[in-house]
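Data card: per-record layout.
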Amino acid sequence: MSRYIDIIAHIISIFLSIKFFLSIFLSPQNSTSNGKFIAMHMSRGAFTKLLEFICRCRLVYLFTFYRFNSDGGSRKNMTDDVAILYVEDNFENRILVMRVLNAEGYSVSFAENATEALAAIDEQDFNLILMDINLPDIDGYTLTAKLRKNPRVQHVPIIALTANVMKGDREKSLDAGCDGYIQKPLDVDALPAQINNFLVR
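The structure for this 201-residue chain is written out next.
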């Protein structure tokens, strides 16, 4: 609501600015001392350019303000109800992903191993699962294959996050049931867009 009030206020200020400057040149004798000074020392051509400049500045600000707030609100609404499970045994990686995705409005839960992952899935519905391949108990490939047999997450996107860069690793992830593959070390700038791409498929 405050966004729309600000927009209306700026529109009104544009019209008031036009009215003020027009009153200076149409009725200079009735203007304030500042108005008379402007009328005496500024030509009509300069006045027109100044007025145009002021209006352009206000309109550019108005457009930028509205676009920024509109996009931000839409983005937040899109991610507010998205729950992500990150299966990862490395504490630093968990904190990094949590900070990046929380900043985008996503809700992130963690599981350090396959046992915790299976328990989390039984307790909560998730929109996407990020799967580390090198887990301490069973590897991410095996866990992913197991999850694909679970009706609760059978159609939930599972994305492999791994430092494995050997030839065939990507294919192995897809064969296990992963929907995609993101290589470590993670690019924190690209990660939100990568996550969003899998969510909108």
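Known properties of this structure: The helical segments are 2-26, 33-41, 44-79, 91-103, 114-123, 140-147, 169-176, 191-199. Residues 63-76 have pLDDT under 50 and may be disordered.

See the next section for split statistics.
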